[in-house]
Design brief:
Distance between the termini of chain A: 32 Å
Number of helices of chain A: 12
Strand content of chain A: 5-15%
Oligomer: homodimer
Strand order of the largest sheet of chain A: 1-2-3
Order of helices and strands of chain A: HEHEHEHHHHHHHHHE
Chain lengths: 211, 211
Amino acid sequence: MEVVRDAPIDCPIGVLTGPNFAHEVAKGLPAAAVVASVDADLREMVLARLGTPGFRLYGNDDPIGAQLGGAAKNVIAIAAGAVMGAGLGENARAALVTRGLRELCRLAVALGGRAETVMGLSGLGDLLLTCTGPASRNFSLGYALGQGEGLASILASRSAVTEGVSTAVALVARAGEVELPICRAVAALLAGSKTLDQAIIDLLSRPQRDE
Amino acid sequence: MEVVRDAPIDCPIGVLTGPNFAHEVAKGLPAAAVVASVDADLREMVLARLGTPGFRLYGNDDPIGAQLGGAAKNVIAIAAGAVMGAGLGENARAALVTRGLRELCRLAVALGGRAETVMGLSGLGDLLLTCTGPASRNFSLGYALGQGEGLASILASRSAVTEGVSTAVALVARAGEVELPICRAVAALLAGSKTLDQAIIDLLSRPQRDE
Protein backbone atom coordinates (compact mmCIF):
# COMPACT_ATOMS: atom_id res chain seq x y z
CA MET A 1 0.00 0.00 0.00
CA GLU A 2 2.95 2.36 0.56
CA VAL A 3 3.93 1.82 -3.06
CA VAL A 4 0.40 2.36 -4.34
CA ARG A 5 0.01 5.45 -2.18
CA ASP A 6 3.00 6.99 -3.90
CA ALA A 7 1.43 6.46 -7.31
CA PRO A 8 -0.42 9.33 -9.03
CA ILE A 9 -3.89 8.01 -8.30
CA ASP A 10 -6.60 9.44 -6.15
CA CYS A 11 -8.92 6.80 -4.75
CA PRO A 12 -9.32 4.87 -1.50
CA ILE A 13 -7.09 1.80 -1.30
CA GLY A 14 -7.17 -1.45 0.58
CA VAL A 15 -5.76 -4.95 0.78
CA LEU A 16 -7.35 -8.29 -0.10
CA THR A 17 -5.38 -11.12 1.51
CA GLY A 18 -5.80 -14.47 3.16
CA PRO A 19 -5.12 -18.22 3.00
CA ASN A 20 -6.11 -18.86 -0.61
CA PHE A 21 -4.52 -21.36 -2.94
CA ALA A 22 -5.66 -19.99 -6.30
CA HIS A 23 -6.31 -23.42 -7.82
CA GLU A 24 -8.82 -24.21 -5.06
CA VAL A 25 -10.63 -20.88 -5.44
CA ALA A 26 -10.81 -21.52 -9.20
CA LYS A 27 -12.50 -24.86 -8.51
CA GLY A 28 -15.16 -23.13 -6.45
CA LEU A 29 -14.07 -24.70 -3.17
CA PRO A 30 -14.90 -22.58 -0.10
CA ALA A 31 -12.35 -20.03 1.11
CA ALA A 32 -12.18 -16.94 3.29
CA ALA A 33 -10.15 -13.74 3.02
CA VAL A 34 -9.75 -10.31 4.60
CA VAL A 35 -10.60 -6.96 3.04
CA ALA A 36 -8.49 -4.48 4.99
CA SER A 37 -8.84 -0.73 4.59
CA VAL A 38 -9.32 2.30 6.80
CA ASP A 39 -12.08 3.33 4.37
CA ALA A 40 -15.35 1.77 5.60
CA ASP A 41 -17.19 2.48 2.34
CA LEU A 42 -14.51 0.70 0.35
CA ARG A 43 -14.64 -2.32 2.67
CA GLU A 44 -18.42 -2.53 2.37
CA MET A 45 -18.33 -2.17 -1.39
CA VAL A 46 -15.74 -4.95 -1.83
CA LEU A 47 -17.59 -7.25 0.58
CA ALA A 48 -20.86 -6.70 -1.28
CA ARG A 49 -19.36 -7.16 -4.76
CA LEU A 50 -16.85 -9.96 -4.24
CA GLY A 51 -18.19 -11.88 -1.26
CA THR A 52 -20.20 -15.06 -1.89
CA PRO A 53 -21.18 -17.95 0.40
CA GLY A 54 -18.19 -19.86 -0.99
CA PHE A 55 -15.75 -16.94 -0.86
CA ARG A 56 -16.34 -15.44 2.56
CA LEU A 57 -14.89 -11.99 3.09
CA TYR A 58 -14.24 -10.37 6.43
CA GLY A 59 -13.77 -6.63 6.85
CA ASN A 60 -10.82 -5.27 8.83
CA ASP A 61 -9.76 -1.66 9.37
CA ASP A 62 -6.10 -2.56 9.99
CA PRO A 63 -4.33 -2.71 6.61
CA ILE A 64 -0.91 -2.52 8.34
CA GLY A 65 -1.50 -5.75 10.22
CA ALA A 66 -3.06 -7.43 7.19
CA GLN A 67 -0.13 -6.56 4.95
CA LEU A 68 2.41 -7.63 7.56
CA GLY A 69 0.68 -10.97 8.12
CA GLY A 70 0.53 -11.74 4.42
CA ALA A 71 4.19 -10.90 3.80
CA ALA A 72 5.96 -11.89 7.01
CA LYS A 73 4.35 -15.32 7.20
CA ASN A 74 6.77 -16.33 4.43
CA VAL A 75 9.71 -15.81 6.79
CA ILE A 76 8.15 -18.06 9.42
CA ALA A 77 7.38 -20.59 6.68
CA ILE A 78 11.10 -20.73 5.80
CA ALA A 79 11.91 -21.35 9.47
CA ALA A 80 9.25 -24.07 9.70
CA GLY A 81 10.67 -25.74 6.59
CA ALA A 82 14.18 -25.64 8.03
CA VAL A 83 12.98 -27.28 11.25
CA MET A 84 11.31 -30.11 9.31
CA GLY A 85 14.23 -30.47 6.87
CA ALA A 86 16.63 -30.78 9.81
CA GLY A 87 14.46 -33.55 11.28
CA LEU A 88 13.58 -31.68 14.48
CA GLY A 89 10.01 -32.94 14.43
CA GLU A 90 6.45 -31.72 14.60
CA ASN A 91 6.58 -30.52 18.21
CA ALA A 92 9.43 -28.19 17.26
CA ARG A 93 7.55 -26.90 14.23
CA ALA A 94 4.39 -26.23 16.24
CA ALA A 95 6.40 -24.35 18.87
CA LEU A 96 8.30 -22.38 16.26
CA VAL A 97 5.21 -21.32 14.30
CA THR A 98 3.41 -20.34 17.52
CA ARG A 99 6.34 -18.29 18.78
CA GLY A 100 6.93 -16.91 15.26
CA LEU A 101 3.37 -15.59 15.16
CA ARG A 102 3.98 -13.95 18.52
CA GLU A 103 6.93 -12.15 16.90
CA LEU A 104 4.74 -10.94 14.05
CA CYS A 105 2.19 -9.65 16.58
CA ARG A 106 4.90 -7.62 18.32
CA LEU A 107 6.06 -6.26 14.98
CA ALA A 108 2.53 -5.36 13.87
CA VAL A 109 1.99 -3.37 17.05
CA ALA A 110 5.35 -1.62 16.66
CA LEU A 111 4.44 -0.62 13.09
CA GLY A 112 1.02 0.75 14.09
CA GLY A 113 -1.13 -2.33 13.40
CA ARG A 114 -2.91 -4.78 15.69
CA ALA A 115 -1.91 -8.20 17.01
CA GLU A 116 -5.42 -9.60 16.45
CA THR A 117 -5.13 -8.97 12.72
CA VAL A 118 -1.98 -11.11 12.48
CA MET A 119 -3.82 -13.79 14.50
CA GLY A 120 -6.56 -13.81 11.87
CA LEU A 121 -6.88 -14.95 8.26
CA SER A 122 -3.84 -12.92 7.24
CA GLY A 123 -0.91 -14.27 9.24
CA LEU A 124 -2.23 -17.26 11.14
CA GLY A 125 -4.53 -18.40 8.33
CA ASP A 126 -1.71 -18.05 5.82
CA LEU A 127 0.66 -19.98 8.05
CA LEU A 128 -1.78 -22.85 8.33
CA LEU A 129 -1.52 -23.17 4.54
CA THR A 130 2.17 -22.58 4.06
CA CYS A 131 3.85 -24.16 7.07
CA THR A 132 2.40 -27.60 6.71
CA GLY A 133 3.09 -28.70 3.19
CA PRO A 134 5.88 -28.71 0.63
CA ALA A 135 3.45 -27.02 -1.79
CA SER A 136 4.69 -23.71 -0.37
CA ARG A 137 7.80 -22.32 -2.04
CA ASN A 138 8.98 -20.75 1.19
CA PHE A 139 8.48 -23.90 3.22
CA SER A 140 10.28 -26.00 0.62
CA LEU A 141 13.20 -23.55 0.47
CA GLY A 142 13.50 -23.79 4.26
CA TYR A 143 13.26 -27.58 4.04
CA ALA A 144 16.17 -27.69 1.61
CA LEU A 145 18.21 -25.39 3.87
CA GLY A 146 17.39 -27.71 6.79
CA GLN A 147 18.71 -30.64 4.81
CA GLY A 148 22.01 -28.84 4.34
CA GLU A 149 21.66 -27.49 0.82
CA GLY A 150 23.13 -24.03 0.19
CA LEU A 151 20.91 -21.03 -0.59
CA ALA A 152 22.60 -20.26 -3.91
CA SER A 153 22.08 -23.80 -5.16
CA ILE A 154 18.42 -23.81 -4.04
CA LEU A 155 17.68 -20.49 -5.75
CA ALA A 156 19.48 -21.56 -8.92
CA SER A 157 17.23 -24.61 -9.21
CA ARG A 158 13.92 -22.69 -9.18
CA SER A 159 12.41 -20.11 -11.48
CA ALA A 160 9.57 -18.94 -9.22
CA VAL A 161 10.24 -16.17 -6.71
CA THR A 162 10.54 -17.24 -3.08
CA GLU A 163 9.26 -14.08 -1.42
CA GLY A 164 10.41 -14.86 2.08
CA VAL A 165 14.09 -14.52 1.15
CA SER A 166 13.81 -10.79 0.46
CA THR A 167 11.05 -10.30 3.05
CA ALA A 168 13.34 -11.55 5.84
CA VAL A 169 15.89 -8.82 5.12
CA ALA A 170 13.24 -6.07 4.73
CA LEU A 171 11.45 -7.15 7.86
CA VAL A 172 14.53 -7.10 10.08
CA ALA A 173 15.53 -3.72 8.60
CA ARG A 174 12.18 -2.26 9.70
CA ALA A 175 12.03 -3.97 13.06
CA GLY A 176 14.27 -1.64 15.06
CA GLU A 177 14.50 -2.98 18.61
CA VAL A 178 11.53 -5.34 18.39
CA GLU A 179 12.34 -8.80 19.78
CA LEU A 180 12.24 -11.14 16.78
CA PRO A 181 14.57 -14.05 17.49
CA ILE A 182 13.10 -16.38 14.84
CA CYS A 183 12.89 -13.77 12.05
CA ARG A 184 16.41 -12.58 12.82
CA ALA A 185 17.67 -16.17 12.81
CA VAL A 186 16.15 -16.71 9.35
CA ALA A 187 17.73 -13.48 8.05
CA ALA A 188 21.12 -14.50 9.45
CA LEU A 189 20.80 -18.00 7.99
CA LEU A 190 19.94 -16.62 4.55
CA ALA A 191 22.77 -14.07 4.74
CA GLY A 192 25.21 -16.84 5.62
CA SER A 193 26.19 -15.11 8.86
CA LYS A 194 24.93 -18.03 10.94
CA THR A 195 24.85 -21.77 10.33
CA LEU A 196 21.66 -23.74 10.84
CA ASP A 197 23.13 -25.55 13.86
CA GLN A 198 24.13 -22.24 15.42
CA ALA A 199 20.70 -20.74 14.76
CA ILE A 200 19.02 -23.71 16.44
CA ILE A 201 21.35 -23.60 19.44
CA ASP A 202 20.81 -19.85 19.83
CA LEU A 203 17.01 -20.19 19.74
CA LEU A 204 16.96 -23.06 22.22
CA SER A 205 19.37 -21.46 24.68
CA ARG A 206 17.40 -18.26 25.13
CA PRO A 207 16.36 -17.65 28.74
CA GLN A 208 13.02 -19.09 29.86
CA ARG A 209 10.30 -16.51 30.16
CA ASP A 210 6.60 -15.90 30.37
CA GLU A 211 4.56 -16.79 27.33
CA MET B 1 -8.06 -28.07 37.75
CA GLU B 2 -11.65 -27.86 38.99
CA VAL B 3 -11.58 -31.59 39.64
CA VAL B 4 -8.21 -31.41 41.41
CA ARG B 5 -9.36 -28.45 43.46
CA ASP B 6 -12.25 -30.52 44.82
CA ALA B 7 -9.88 -33.24 46.00
CA PRO B 8 -8.74 -33.29 49.65
CA ILE B 9 -5.27 -31.90 49.00
CA ASP B 10 -3.72 -28.64 50.05
CA CYS B 11 -1.04 -27.40 47.69
CA PRO B 12 -0.77 -24.96 44.80
CA ILE B 13 -1.86 -26.42 41.48
CA GLY B 14 -1.11 -25.68 37.85
CA VAL B 15 -1.34 -27.00 34.32
CA LEU B 16 1.42 -28.27 32.01
CA THR B 17 0.16 -28.32 28.43
CA GLY B 18 1.31 -27.70 24.89
CA PRO B 19 1.93 -29.17 21.44
CA ASN B 20 3.86 -32.27 22.47
CA PHE B 21 3.73 -35.64 20.75
CA ALA B 22 5.12 -37.88 23.51
CA HIS B 23 7.17 -40.04 21.15
CA GLU B 24 9.12 -36.96 19.97
CA VAL B 25 9.76 -35.73 23.52
CA ALA B 26 10.97 -39.23 24.42
CA LYS B 27 13.46 -39.07 21.54
CA GLY B 28 14.88 -35.83 22.91
CA LEU B 29 13.65 -33.71 20.01
CA PRO B 30 13.02 -30.05 20.92
CA ALA B 31 9.57 -29.03 22.16
CA ALA B 32 7.92 -26.23 24.09
CA ALA B 33 5.07 -26.18 26.60
CA VAL B 34 3.22 -23.88 28.97
CA VAL B 35 3.25 -24.00 32.77
CA ALA B 36 0.07 -22.19 33.77
CA SER B 37 -0.74 -21.33 37.36
CA VAL B 38 -1.80 -18.30 39.34
CA ASP B 39 0.94 -19.24 41.83
CA ALA B 40 4.16 -17.54 40.69
CA ASP B 41 6.36 -19.65 43.00
CA LEU B 42 4.94 -22.84 41.53
CA ARG B 43 5.55 -21.61 37.98
CA GLU B 44 9.14 -20.69 38.76
CA MET B 45 9.77 -24.00 40.49
CA VAL B 46 8.42 -26.06 37.58
CA LEU B 47 10.31 -23.98 35.02
CA ALA B 48 13.56 -24.41 36.96
CA ARG B 49 13.15 -28.16 37.54
CA LEU B 50 11.61 -29.36 34.26
CA GLY B 51 12.82 -26.83 31.71
CA THR B 52 15.82 -27.68 29.55
CA PRO B 53 17.15 -26.17 26.31
CA GLY B 54 15.36 -28.96 24.45
CA PHE B 55 12.14 -28.77 26.49
CA ARG B 56 11.40 -25.07 26.65
CA LEU B 57 8.83 -24.03 29.21
CA TYR B 58 6.94 -20.76 29.23
CA GLY B 59 5.20 -19.43 32.32
CA ASN B 60 1.60 -18.21 32.12
CA ASP B 61 -0.69 -17.01 34.91
CA ASP B 62 -3.89 -17.91 33.04
CA PRO B 63 -4.69 -21.58 33.78
CA ILE B 64 -8.28 -21.09 32.55
CA GLY B 65 -7.11 -20.17 29.04
CA ALA B 66 -4.44 -22.87 29.04
CA GLN B 67 -6.91 -25.59 30.01
CA LEU B 68 -9.48 -24.40 27.51
CA GLY B 69 -6.93 -24.31 24.68
CA GLY B 70 -5.69 -27.82 25.43
CA ALA B 71 -9.18 -29.32 25.59
CA ALA B 72 -11.22 -27.32 23.08
CA LYS B 73 -8.66 -27.65 20.29
CA ASN B 74 -9.93 -31.23 19.90
CA VAL B 75 -13.33 -29.93 18.80
CA ILE B 76 -11.75 -27.73 16.13
CA ALA B 77 -9.60 -30.68 15.06
CA ILE B 78 -12.77 -32.74 14.45
CA ALA B 79 -14.14 -29.89 12.31
CA ALA B 80 -10.85 -29.62 10.38
CA GLY B 81 -10.92 -33.37 9.75
CA ALA B 82 -14.49 -33.19 8.49
CA VAL B 83 -13.57 -30.41 6.06
CA MET B 84 -10.70 -32.45 4.65
CA GLY B 85 -12.70 -35.70 4.60
CA ALA B 86 -15.45 -33.94 2.67
CA GLY B 87 -12.89 -32.73 0.12
CA LEU B 88 -13.42 -29.02 0.76
CA GLY B 89 -9.70 -28.28 0.45
CA GLU B 90 -6.87 -26.58 2.29
CA ASN B 91 -8.23 -23.03 1.96
CA ALA B 92 -11.38 -24.13 3.77
CA ARG B 93 -9.38 -25.84 6.51
CA ALA B 94 -7.17 -22.80 7.06
CA ALA B 95 -10.22 -20.55 7.30
CA LEU B 96 -12.02 -22.93 9.62
CA VAL B 97 -9.09 -23.35 12.01
CA THR B 98 -8.49 -19.59 12.09
CA ARG B 99 -12.12 -18.82 12.78
CA GLY B 100 -12.32 -21.75 15.21
CA LEU B 101 -9.46 -20.27 17.24
CA ARG B 102 -11.33 -16.97 17.30
CA GLU B 103 -14.25 -18.85 18.86
CA LEU B 104 -12.00 -20.34 21.53
CA CYS B 105 -10.65 -16.86 22.30
CA ARG B 106 -14.19 -15.58 22.85
CA LEU B 107 -14.96 -18.54 25.07
CA ALA B 108 -11.76 -18.12 27.09
CA VAL B 109 -12.63 -14.50 27.80
CA ALA B 110 -16.21 -15.44 28.75
CA LEU B 111 -14.89 -18.03 31.22
CA GLY B 112 -12.42 -15.62 32.84
CA GLY B 113 -9.28 -16.43 30.83
CA ARG B 114 -7.37 -14.52 28.17
CA ALA B 115 -7.48 -14.67 24.37
CA GLU B 116 -3.66 -14.44 24.13
CA THR B 117 -3.29 -17.70 26.03
CA VAL B 118 -5.43 -19.57 23.50
CA MET B 119 -3.33 -17.96 20.75
CA GLY B 120 -0.20 -19.45 22.34
CA LEU B 121 1.27 -22.91 22.76
CA SER B 122 -1.96 -24.22 24.28
CA GLY B 123 -4.66 -23.79 21.65
CA LEU B 124 -2.88 -22.53 18.54
CA GLY B 125 0.25 -24.65 19.12
CA ASP B 126 -1.89 -27.72 19.74
CA LEU B 127 -3.95 -27.07 16.62
CA LEU B 128 -0.82 -26.88 14.49
CA LEU B 129 -0.10 -30.45 15.59
CA THR B 130 -3.57 -31.90 15.46
CA CYS B 131 -5.26 -30.24 12.51
CA THR B 132 -2.73 -31.09 9.91
CA GLY B 133 -2.20 -34.81 10.11
CA PRO B 134 -4.21 -38.00 10.46
CA ALA B 135 -1.97 -38.88 13.43
CA SER B 136 -4.52 -37.04 15.58
CA ARG B 137 -7.45 -39.15 16.75
CA ASN B 138 -9.77 -36.16 16.66
CA PHE B 139 -8.74 -35.12 13.16
CA SER B 140 -9.12 -38.68 11.86
CA LEU B 141 -12.56 -39.02 13.46
CA GLY B 142 -13.63 -35.79 11.75
CA TYR B 143 -12.11 -37.04 8.50
CA ALA B 144 -14.20 -40.22 8.64
CA LEU B 145 -17.34 -38.17 9.38
CA GLY B 146 -16.48 -35.98 6.40
CA GLN B 147 -16.31 -39.05 4.23
CA GLY B 148 -19.80 -40.01 5.27
CA GLU B 149 -19.12 -42.67 7.90
CA GLY B 150 -21.47 -42.71 10.90
CA LEU B 151 -20.24 -41.75 14.38
CA ALA B 152 -21.29 -45.07 15.96
CA SER B 153 -19.37 -47.05 13.36
CA ILE B 154 -16.26 -44.87 13.77
CA LEU B 155 -16.27 -45.15 17.56
CA ALA B 156 -16.88 -48.92 17.40
CA SER B 157 -13.75 -49.34 15.28
CA ARG B 158 -11.36 -47.65 17.73
CA SER B 159 -10.29 -48.46 21.27
CA ALA B 160 -8.58 -45.16 22.12
CA VAL B 161 -10.66 -42.31 23.51
CA THR B 162 -11.41 -39.46 21.08
CA GLU B 163 -11.62 -36.61 23.58
CA GLY B 164 -13.21 -34.08 21.27
CA VAL B 165 -16.48 -36.03 21.12
CA SER B 166 -17.28 -35.43 24.78
CA THR B 167 -15.51 -32.06 24.86
CA ALA B 168 -17.82 -30.70 22.16
CA VAL B 169 -20.89 -31.37 24.31
CA ALA B 170 -19.28 -30.03 27.50
CA LEU B 171 -18.00 -26.94 25.76
CA VAL B 172 -21.34 -25.96 24.26
CA ALA B 173 -23.03 -26.60 27.62
CA ARG B 174 -20.70 -24.09 29.28
CA ALA B 175 -20.75 -21.55 26.51
CA GLY B 176 -24.02 -19.78 27.32
CA GLU B 177 -24.60 -17.08 24.74
CA VAL B 178 -21.04 -17.00 23.36
CA GLU B 179 -20.99 -17.05 19.56
CA LEU B 180 -19.44 -20.40 18.62
CA PRO B 181 -20.78 -21.41 15.20
CA ILE B 182 -18.08 -23.99 14.45
CA CYS B 183 -18.10 -25.64 17.89
CA ARG B 184 -21.90 -25.75 17.89
CA ALA B 185 -21.88 -27.25 14.39
CA VAL B 186 -19.51 -30.01 15.57
CA ALA B 187 -21.72 -30.73 18.60
CA ALA B 188 -24.82 -30.88 16.38
CA LEU B 189 -23.05 -33.13 13.88
CA LEU B 190 -21.93 -35.52 16.62
CA ALA B 191 -25.40 -35.51 18.18
CA GLY B 192 -26.93 -36.36 14.82
CA SER B 193 -29.15 -33.28 14.92
CA LYS B 194 -27.51 -31.84 11.80
CA THR B 195 -26.08 -33.49 8.68
CA LEU B 196 -22.62 -32.57 7.45
CA ASP B 197 -24.07 -30.89 4.35
CA GLN B 198 -26.42 -28.83 6.49
CA ALA B 199 -23.62 -27.85 8.87
CA ILE B 200 -21.46 -26.68 5.94
CA ILE B 201 -24.33 -24.72 4.36
CA ASP B 202 -25.14 -23.08 7.71
CA LEU B 203 -21.52 -22.01 8.30
CA LEU B 204 -21.10 -20.63 4.78
CA SER B 205 -24.38 -18.73 4.74
CA ARG B 206 -23.73 -16.72 7.90
CA PRO B 207 -23.79 -12.97 7.30
CA GLN B 208 -20.52 -11.30 6.32
CA ARG B 209 -18.91 -9.37 9.16
CA ASP B 210 -15.78 -7.78 10.45
CA GLU B 211 -12.93 -10.13 11.27
